[in-house]
Amino acid sequence: MDNGQTPPAPQPIVIKQGGGWAIRIIAFLGWMGLIFAGLIILVQLAATAQYFNEEDGVTEKFYSGDKLASDKIALIRVEGLIMQGEGYIRNQIELAQKDKDVKAVVLRVDSPGGSVSASDYIYHHLNELREEREIPLVVSMGSSATSGGYYVAMAVGDEKDVIYAEPTTITGSIGVIIPHYDITGLLEEYHIKDDSIASHERKQMLSMTRTMTPDQRDLVQGLVNDMFTRFKDVVKTGRPAYVEDPEKLNELATGEIYMADQAVDLGLVDKIGFVEAAIGRAAELADLDVKKTRVVSYTKPTSLFSLGSATAASPTQSLMKAVIDTTSPKAYYLDSSLPALTAGMAAAQ
After folding, report:
1. Active site residue: 61, 98, 193, 203, which one?
2. CA neighbours within 13 Å on the CB side: how many for 267?
3. What pLDDT digit, counting tens, does each position of 4-18 carry?
4. Is there a catalytic annotation at residue 147?
5. Where is the Peptidase S49 domain (predicted)?
6. Which domains does the chain have, with CATH numbers?
7. Which of 108, 113, 159, 233 could cross-link with 334 by S-S, CB 3.0 to 4.6 Å?
8. For strand 72-79 and strand 102-111, is the pairing parallel, antiparallel, or unpaired?
9. Which residue in 147, 173, 207, 336 is the catalytic one?
């Protein structure tokens, strides 16, 4: 029976949960552990892939022609200073060498040269690619193909009409240099003396803190002459006309640079033309229809792991490496007014 009184509101039921914060902390740590473990696994997989990847991430990319064609012309790039034999250039060569669908190679050179050893190493492997695969190799020169850049171009062999230069290409600079700087006068001004202890006086004959003696200069000149002879011998493999007329090669192998039209007149270059002309010539030599051929180039993508890898040197490490490379005795097939400084800084990158 209703007596007019309002019944009391129902009391809420509260369920107490013990240890809520502890559970959340444990769950958070668990998730963090899983994420960390996943990152470790990814890093290990990347390291394993890099270890077994002989091409070091170099991938094929369509350049021109027929995208669906099976026959390929490989465009291999030699750009910038040639300071390392191993690396991107060598990886391109290996990729082309293993690909049986590659029927010809166009070597795109845009380089002022580099160290003697690195230039010779790249030349050797390009020559090996052409000979072992028995495929034509045609050179397309960019803005510069001087000294070591011209050296590697000699991998074309004795085939005719296989070196193309653009109208504004600079080439030549056939020669060798071992840089040496004498700062003894500067040291004397500041009362600094080199007091190094060496096993023999010749150990320091290229030191910038000591004046080179006539005997030491003769020794270094002998090294330069030997490497210069090697350079001219390599030029003769790619320019057989100089075998019959070696004096002509001696006259132009002064370190002088030449414009494209001069280089054609001297026999250093065969034709004036852009990379498309070189591709057309490569297709012709390989008995291919250039319109039904796939031209490919090779790129080296930047991966997530390479951005923070241990191979990226700090500014201090790069500077130290540049200083060491600058002061170390090295010979260069290089067209530059500051060979040691330029090469040292480039090698440190």
Report:
1. 203
2. 19
3. 566 666 666 555 555
4. yes
5. 132-288
6. 59-176+224-301 (3.90.226.10)
7. 113
8. parallel
9. 147
